[in-house]
Input
Amino acid sequence: MKKTILLKAIALLLIISSCSDDEGEDLIDFTVNFSSETVGTTEEDTSKEITLSFSRPASEAGTINLTYTGTNAEYGTDFTTTPDGASGTIAISVAAGDRNTSFTFNKLSNAIEGSSKSVTFSIESFDQSDWSQGSTASTLVSYTAVAASSGVIDSENGGSNMPNQVYFDFSSATQTAVQRDTWEIAFFNGTENRVFLNPALAVSAVEITGETDLLSITEASDLPAPMELNGLNAMFQPEAVTVSTVSELLEGLPVSYYQYGNLDEGISFTDNAEGTLEGTAFSEVSTTAEENYVYIVSLGFEIPGPAEDVGSIETTGDPRGYMKVRVLSDGNSYTVQYADLAETESYNEVTVAKNDAYNLTAFSLTNGETVSVEPTKEQWDINLSGVFSYYGSSQGLVAGLTYSDYVLHNTLGGTGLYQVTIEEGVPTYANFAMADVDESSFVYDNRAVVGSGWRDAFNGTINENVYYILKDVDGNYYKFDFTAFTSTEGERGHYQFTYERL
Output
């Protein structure tokens, strides 16, 4: 009975979330913009990819011709490009269906201290008569790092099954896409010893309090003591649940409406939505080994294939199973012990050193290795996570919740952000200026301020009544606003936002 109702509930949610705009059959004008007006390089950079974005996918192949002007920079001595631009013009090919294109700026030398050096690239012409320049028809590539001033970003989340998490840094106009099933847990690199779960994969975890012997715990085990939890019955009404065995516990461990928990007692099998150090499902890791207990980790769900219907989403595939994990720490590194839940003979052990350059070091329990996920902590501001899950309350329902189109900001790295709601007396996005910034409104302890509130899933549209103000760790202020919920063909998992430095 539970399974039948759950399947119906999931089907209803998928139907609701599949709504999208009917954009009609007429193609919008094809315009070309540089993704950013400015691009910074560091002394270590030897090349930089420069992106041009299109207002819609190209309906035919063509060529974009660029010109360039150097300030204290000469072609062949200080820089080159790929494709070649020695003639003074760079011809960039566009294939039918392309959403954007790019070329490579190759830096051959650095600026001498006390001097400036830059190259400005401009759109000159097209070989298709109906193509036109957008508002950002040139970009300046600086030989010293400068904060990007504005741009339009098309996210690389990957489509209706949202396979990728995307990290975006405003000051460098850089997005980093990482497949969301490459990791399950991550280790905090700060002073506290903390373990985070991957919310984009719906990973969850429960502590077997008092148990330090990893191999003694299997699905057939009794718990050291019964757990008094809350669940939902078949009518989605709360009911008390007493769990005495591991097999009973597994019924309510994965993220779902029927996930167990007890928020009044501080029991949650997921990290909290806010992303605070105190809100992790794993307790703080002690430097005293005997105080660190075994956890059972639900590895979340496979990434399914794309949704069959245009405008719908399909983000949750088959369950990925369970592992048992125990984490130790000496304060400078973590030692993770892990094995399949049924294993009773041996376990794997890996030591992971803390790396202060990053907020978190991600780890794959399925592959037994660290994984490159987040950029360094000062080189990203927002995470377009695509999928996001946690145990909490939504419109009176306390359960395991999963969202699509979710956006987080880098609170662990010092990024602040707040939402502006347009109402009487509040400036529109276009009119918002530096003088309108409210320093007291920046939120540094809740990564989920944006969340999914930037779009209306029921109508498949952008929420036009809100935009966001961000302050990065270097003190740069930006405003940004979402401008697209789907691709021009109506496929979910393709977000677009515009931003401007204040």
